[in-house]
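Dear H.,

Thanks for agreeing to be a second pair of eyes. The structure we're designing against is below in token form, covering all 725 positions.
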């Protein structure tokens, strides 16, 4: 079987090499799938489509090797937002002859792009359209287009901007933020320099623009909303653009380093004057582990926490206060204030899925500081599925030798490969701990295990050889509960995982294994024998759920008795009884109430992540990414914010059963690290407030007001996010 898997990969690679490297056509939609997958240069001459499974979507997601795109002879008046979002191989693009507008984030993070010409036909360049094109060296502007906020921010390699209009094009003040004016030459028509020297957005090429004095307005800038906010605008404010001295109590060395990191990132120490004191301390009088009190006076800032985690969250609030309205990297002053704050729920989680499309290790690490900014405190790793096995298990090396690489994810024929070593995961755990984020691993069972079955066929009924899945959907292949090797295998896997991940929780999957369980078990002789041992008299599917209960019971006992772990799983109605002490996840549309009833009846904890509120891989609005999917509905920002963690239940439920809230980022359609952020934010910000802030501190209108400066800050820092509506 190992040779067969390698042969399939070799044939796929050879077929791509044999396909043409250059494609010239009216529309890319007319090109065969292997031609799109092999194309390095694409020349288009027709009228390009922009909606649904359009020319632009296929260029972005199917032509994954594309380095040069020539649309000069094509017609496309409006290049839509996200058109070529995060296409890292794209080195050159010729825009359409009749282009009028380029949408928001259209070429975001195309960080191999070297030169660019904006044609005279162009009227509008959207927000962040070419942000984070970090290798862009030369920009030619033939006409006079309006350029939106952060249109070219983060283009630090720019050395020449040539504008051919004698009248300065209207440009947002932040359009070229992050461009070094000392190294980048602005070339304008003779005699027009005086106009450019005084034009907003252009004058920064000549001298630093003077900014108005900005005093933070805390009520307008904090997400999640804090529990108690008292401000005194009559008192002398604290000016912040001075050197800061950090005083930290014993045990807060990590928080002191985090404080220095965020102060340096905000540029607070660039001014002169008397030092600002930042005092970090522990206060035993505070109750909750994540509770903190932050005080600002004209002398400095004091942050007290019940634990180091509380102090850290006080620092995250300070970072947002310094950012203020988002008009600049840092405000000038903070008013005298007192904030007392604590979370509503215990766990605020984001789940990422490197199984379908692999997330490079350094990109996975980089996701942690961003989520921690908003007091999200758990990263859930969906490490295995039908499409791949992504974690090194030393007892079973074939899992990563054969199960970590394939070609294709639905219509995207790109090679997908990679796995995490145990040392990398230890590094991730230690890194995340500095941000008070715990890492929770998930190993699916009994379904979504085709990758493991592909490597070790004896895991499934009948020992059939099964290829890795290259599409989304649900496989009929399950682990065999009547096969003793399954328990040996899972025991060894969890033994190694317990040594790598110190989190008290481990997720066992459990979803989509049949309703009732699929025929895989009905037709298996070992399963029939197990039924007889368990006293199950039926031969049909009706009692197959008891086989799953048996399998889970053995695994849960191993996790508890040998490794001290609390099991988690996705709730299904198949689970007639939830084992006491487990954590179940309410995820299916319309089944949250039933899941809660089951959790209460079985004295279990429940995590709320219902798809109608928390599935962040779904489009945030109609027509948004992903344009092509397997029938995903829209989960709007407002829908996410509308989640009630108590689901209308009383305080007893919140105290005894509610575990937290989670957002899921399944990766069937997330094919670049930047897309993870785009799908996550701003809905993850809504979820952070849902999980942290008490009901009486929340309002939709207030959230939108406080969200605006935060999204400006994300644009300034080059973090992709969907458009808030």
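And this is the sequence the design step returned. I haven't edited it by hand at all.
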């Amino acid at each position: 079987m190992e040779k067969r898997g390698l042969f399939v990969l070799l044939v796929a690679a050879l077929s791509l090499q044999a396909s043409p490297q250059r494609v010239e056509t009216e529309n890319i939609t007319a090109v065969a799938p292997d031609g799109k997958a092999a194309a390095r240069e694409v020349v288009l001459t027709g009228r390009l489509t922009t909606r649904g499974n359009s020319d632009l979507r296929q260029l972005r997601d199917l032509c994954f090797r594309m380095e040069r795109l020539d649309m000069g002879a094509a017609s496309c008046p409006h290049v839509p937002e996200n058109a070529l979002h995060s296409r890292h191989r794209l080195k050159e693009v010729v825009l359409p002859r009749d282009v009028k507008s380029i949408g928001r984030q259209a070429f975001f993070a195309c960080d191999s792009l070297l030169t660019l010409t904006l044609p005279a036909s162009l009227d509008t360049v959207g927000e962040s359209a070419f942000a984070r094109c970090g290798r862009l060296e030369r920009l030619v502007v033939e006409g006079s287009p309006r350029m939106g906020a952060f249109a070219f921010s983060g283009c630090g390699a720019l050395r020449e901007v040539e504008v051919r209009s004698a009248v300065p094009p209207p440009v947002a003040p932040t359009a070229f933020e992050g461009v070094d004016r000392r190294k980048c030459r602005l070339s304008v028509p003779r005699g027009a320099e005086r106009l450019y020297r005084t034009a907003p957005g252009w004058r920064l090429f000549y001298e630093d623009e003077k900014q108005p004095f900005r005093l933070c307005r805390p009520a307008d800038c904090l997400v999640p909303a804090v529990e108690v906010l008292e401000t005194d605008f009559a008192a002398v404010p604290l000016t912040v653009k001075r050197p800061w001295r950090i005083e930290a109590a014993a045990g807060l060395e990590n928080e002191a380093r985090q404080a220095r990191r965020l102060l340096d990132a905000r540029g607070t120490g660039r001014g002169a004057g008397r030092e600002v004191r930042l005092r970090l301390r522990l206060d035993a009088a505070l109750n909750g582990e994540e509770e903190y009190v932050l005080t600002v006076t004209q002398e400095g800032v004091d942050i007290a926490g019940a634990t180091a985690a509380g102090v850290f969250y006080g620092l995250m609030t300070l970072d947002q206060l310094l950012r203020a309205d988002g008009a600049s990297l840092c405000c000038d002053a903070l008013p005298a204030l007192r904030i007392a704050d604590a979370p509503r729920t215990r766990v605020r989680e984001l789940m990422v899925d490197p199984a379908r499309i692999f997330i490079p290790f350094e990109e996975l690490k980089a996701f942690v500081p961003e989520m921690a900014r908003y007091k999200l405190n758990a990263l859930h790793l969906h490490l295995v599925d039908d499409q791949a096995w992504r974690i090194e298990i030393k007892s079973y090396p074939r899992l990563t030798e054969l199960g970590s690489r394939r070609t294709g994810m639905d219509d995207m024929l790109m090679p997908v490969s990679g796995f995490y070593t145990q040392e990398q995961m230890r590094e991730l755990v230690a890194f995340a701990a500095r941000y008070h984020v715990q890492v929770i691993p998930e190993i699916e069972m009994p379904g979504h295990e085709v990758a493991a079955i592909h490597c070790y066929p004896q895991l499934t009924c009948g020992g059939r050889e099964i290829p890795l899945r290259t599409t989304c959907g649900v496989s009929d292949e399950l682990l065999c509960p009547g096969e003793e090797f399954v328990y040996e295998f899972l025991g060894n896997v969890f033994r190694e995982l317990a040594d790598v991940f110190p989190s008290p929780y481990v997720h066992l999957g459990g979803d989509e294994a049949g309703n009732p369980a699929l025929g895989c078990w009905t037709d298996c002789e070992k399963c029939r024998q197990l039924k007889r041992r368990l006293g199950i008299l039926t031969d049909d599917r009706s009692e197959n759920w008891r086989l799953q209960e048996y399998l889970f019971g053995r695994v849960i006992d191993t996790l508890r008795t040998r490794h001290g772990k609390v099991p988690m799983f996705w709730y299904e109605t198949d689970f007639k009884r939830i084992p006491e002490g487990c954590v179940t996840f309410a995820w299916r549309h319309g089944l949250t109430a039933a899941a809660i009833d089951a959790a209460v009846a079985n004295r279990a904890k429940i995590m709320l992540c219902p798809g109608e509120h928390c599935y962040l891989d779904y489009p945030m609005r109609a027509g948004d990414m992903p344009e092509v999917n397997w029938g995903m509905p829209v989960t709007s920002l407002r829908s996410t914010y509308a989640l009630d963690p108590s689901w209308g239940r009383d305080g007893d439920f919140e105290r005894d059963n509610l575990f937290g809230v989670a957002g899921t980022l399944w990766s069937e359609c997330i094919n670049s690290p930047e897309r993870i952020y785009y799908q996550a934010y701003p809905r993850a910000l809504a979820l952070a407030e849902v999980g942290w802030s008490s009901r009486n501190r929340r309002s939709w209108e207030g959230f939108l007001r406080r969200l605006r400066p935060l999204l400006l800050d994300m644009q300034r820092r080059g973090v992709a996010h969907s458009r808030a509506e």
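Two observations from my side: The longest strand covers residues 438-445. Residues 1-19 have pLDDT under 50 and may be disordered.

Warmly,
E.
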